[in-house]
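The freezer alarm interrupted the setup, so I double-checked each line after restarting. Inputs confirmed:
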Amino acid sequence: MKKMMFALSLIGLALTVIPSVFVFLNQLAWQTHAHLMLLGTVLWFAAAPWWMRDVKK
Amino acid sequence: MTPASPSTLVERLDHLYEFDREPVAESKLQSAGNFIGVYSGEHIAGTEFVIGPLFVAHGVSAFDLFAGLFVGNLLAVLSWAFVVAPIAVKTRLNQYWLLRKIVGPNLLFAYNIVNALMFCFLAGSMISVSATAVGLPFNMTMPSLGDVYPNSLTWVVVVLVVGALVTALAILGFEKLAHFSKIAAPWMALVFIAAPLAVLPQLGVTSFADFWRVANEKIWTGVPLAGQTKFTFWHIAFFAWFCNMAMHLGMADLTLLRYARKWQYGFLSAFGMYLGHYLAWISSGILCAAALGNVAPGPIAYLGAGVSGAICVVIAGWTTANPALYRAGLALQIATPNWKRWKVTLAAGIATTLAALFPALMMKLLDFVALYGLLLMPMGAVIFADYWLIPKLRLQQNFAELQNLPFSWPAALTWGLTLLLAFLLPLEIFFKGLPAWFFAVALYLGLSFIQQKSFAGGKV
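Predicted 3D structure, all chains:
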């Protein structure tokens, strides 16, 4: 479970930043980047607390 | 039987910090990784969304910005490493208990109140920052650079709602919020990278080779907006150095660095300075230029990152405002006998929210941050002088504790006269800190000499 959450949160971070690189390279529409970033945000905040809590302990 | 509750101001203040009265034990020291996390998280905050655009508004040139930030942040890192960290790892005491030994509990009380008021204003500006994002769906008229008073009824309602939420969460507790803040930090850092990347094509940057030309022509043009003073390399360097003056030259980070295994951990502040201040201020400046000079944090973040950008502004403002308000409540609790913590935090929250109604608090953030550091810096100079220089003059360290003095007049005069000198110096506020620090050190040494030689007929 924890490993899955860790993987999901990493995907969330990747979706937060990578689409903007493609916008910069003119390979992706800004609107798509904004949608993917929002998805990444939701993934990060849903998954990160599961494993970050363990690190804290 | 429960212990008697503390009754005097000093007893209440001591009681509040009782839990970390002793030097940090060896087993509680923290790894370098923890310091990297703390510094990176602390310096990617709501303030970053305001400071970058204000540099653009003040007409700094691209070279002055990049070079000034490099030098200023380097000086800040060196201040942490060479001024704060060595004392922190030798004493292992937090700022409160070390200062109490040097200046006495009554003067420390006054210092705590000033600190609390500064925290209230900081929290207020962050409520304003969050409000600019919350107001987006309501087509709220955003405050502009010159706005002093509330500019619309929507602004008033949004600020009141955000202020009420921030206050309620500060009352409910701090631990969970601090944890949430740690979770948000890596994501916020990436938003600060992604948002400007996504708007650079709108500014005409389609390859990395274009960046420097566009940076000079469209972002940091060297021309200030109407009514704004022109910023140079020196403004940027000194601002970057002194915006956290309360933490380094003011010694507030003794409380953090006392957990360091080695004094060299002070250099880890570079992660906060270069990831946070360097990167984030450049990013928010790019967003401001893409928004055609709009400086309101909510709209510029939305322009780069859509809804995630607006969420980032709310979270960044909120995670900065909450600990500030919590700490203000903690400090003010001393002055309000028999008040529960929630009642003090509520009062601080109401005052803070009312202050946040005035956009000038956010738009004058550069001046406020500089003033904040300047007000608290003299006590850091006192700690520095007492720890390193007083023994070289064959005087006694921690004289207030040694003689059981409730109030150190040399420290009080140093604080007051340094601020008076800083006020009178014909310099912009960003430049006053450096001469004032040297003045404070010299004055405290002179006054301590007079005090200790006259004490008990010259025998100390």
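Quick read of the result. DSSP finds 19 helices and no strands in chain B.
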